[in-house]
Amino acid sequence: MRYWPFILFLFSSIIVQAQQDVTPALEIIKASIANKDLNNPLKALNTFQYESYENLKIAGNPEAITGSGYKKTELRRTLLKTGVFLSEKTSDIVHDQSQGYKELITAAFMPGFDKPVYPIYNINFQSRNLYQDTYVVFDQHYINPVSNSGLNSYNYETIGDTIIENRKINIIGFAPIETSTSTLSGTIYIDQETSAIAKAHYNIFKNLRVETKHDYVYDSLHHLWYCSYSELFIKKTNNVKEIELFGGRFEVGTRKQEDIDRETDELYLIMKRYQKDFKTNRKVTFGQKGVSIEIPENSIDKPLSYWDTYRNEEPFTTQELANFMQLDSIVMAEKVTRKLEVIEKFKVGYYPVGFFDIDLKYLIKFNEYEAFRIGIGGTTNDKFSERWRVSGYGAFGTKDKVFKHNITLGYRISEENNTWLSAYKTDDINEFAGARFLTDARVYSLFEPRLINIPTFYLYKEYGVSLQQRLFPSVISEFSLSRKRISQTTNYVFAPDGNPFVNYVLSEATIAARWSPKSEFMKTPKGYQETIKGYPILSGQVTKGIQGLLDSDFNYLKFSGKASYTIHRINGSKTAFLLEGHYASGDVPLSHLFHAYPNSPTKDEVLQRFSVAGRNSFETMYFNEFFSDRIATLQMRHNFAPFHITSWLNPELVITSRYAIGDFNDTGDHLNIDFNRLNKGYTESGFELNKLIYGFGISATYRYGAYHLPQFSDNLALKFTFYLEI
């Protein structure tokens, strides 16, 4: 026991020494976080602008370029032949406190392509601002060490001090407390007086070896540090890892051991960015609001001499320049542009063949009424005409033995606003009470889950005109005027005021809009592209049925609205909310009213109802069980971060909860069909385990609350899910 005082003294000395080593670093980081609004030029200055030159070089031998579901592309062969890929751009960067951020690309150069591959400019290769909560590499978000989240994720250590721009600087090293897919390591240089970032080196040593660097210059007038140079290095490692680029993927993986040994130090990707001519608190020309990246037409035709001034800052080797000069002929010979076109259009369900894009959605489907529906459709592209567009489809049902078709002729009034005036004619079937929004974004899936289960359709012959326009970058609108002749596939009769109608004519005027107030957009000579999808996304639609117009039988008014909001988290999890509502007044047939997107076949046994789960459908609600002339639904989904079990097995657990409430006036006007009202409120919850194998998973959902059924199995829905990324 006599040694206890000595042991306690020794232990306390160790603790004090550890605190002396660690606490200063932690306090320095905390001070930097506390003062970040004062040190961040985007916060401290009313306006901030500068010039930027950026070059991206892909060097070495990438092992494969693939897209999910694709075989190796021609782009891989191009890089193997040239050994290098180059993209250069110059930009004016503007930030205004009231209007936000804007990058005006003043020149863009991509050897080998007639015009730049614009989607590459959507990629956030590397963060420009180190004061944000996350740090970005290749659109992947990592926890910023200079953030409140970083305090819980990293250990900090004082390495020493130095002098930069004649100012005393602390050097702080950091490393993750627990290694994860969202953490970094590296060193940060902090100004001792202002607690501002004066330099930074970040590293990611996982499947890919990533090194980033940021150098700063000091403005003594405003006491601020501006980033003057940054670079991004990605090197090969022995593990397979894909990086998405050009809509395809670069896959860096394991080859023969002798190749790995020989090429370990070979750089795979280099991006360097030079920034200069900083201007502060001056009047700026911001340009069009709502656009964060703008590429004017005159930026893509700069002479080669334009780039010499900038390349003096980053000289290329003679061999590199020779390779760049070969790119034009090699890209043409290897048909890389063609391959990129296929990749880009395949993502939204088209396959280009000359001047015509085949619509893959129409090739084959299945439903209860038609059985197999076999067809073909598509649309002309810019190779046919930049002003005129002809689209349509033809389909044949193997059960009903009837041919369906659509033909649409469109004329583009404005390329910038993507304004199209179209006339169309359709002869087809549609789901009973299947309301849709005109401005919903096109979604392509290998098959449509709910369509397989839908039992009730109506026939229609329609012709009409529509005007589609992007009013603002964030607002898409459409107006349509149409006439439909409706026929029944069931015994349904609509009898308003005792006057029965089996078949009827509807003339409708519809106006719709979708607003994405938090999204960011890029404007190119080809129009607008959404660069960052922001939330909420709001949709609204008004439809007026006009009695007497073109022999229309009924007069009515319908209102529809929808709001979606998704919260993405840095660990890969997300939570999504979808609120949707519809209201109708007047004489509206049931075929054009509303349901809650039910997706349970009307069969007795739970295994007989085993089918495909929908994306936003009520899995335990039976088809034709409920209809409404006013309805509101709320759906909530929480996706947990994927479980990384093996390279090919990364299942995702999702929990879901859905609620619907509605009502129905004048149910007696709808004959030969039995249904319930939703006035008591409908509730179901469940889970999905997705992407177990080849995109397939399983789900289970249970119905409870006011519409709970007496038998347990009648409330349960077991289904498989299908989520395959193209």
TrEMBL record:
It holds the Pfam family DUF5686. Residues 1-18 form the signal peptide. The keyword Signal applies. InterPro entries: DUF5686. It comes from the Bacteria. Keywords: Signal. This is Carboxypeptidase. The lineage of its organism: Bacteria, Pseudomonadati, Bacteroidota, Flavobacteriia, Flavobacteriales.
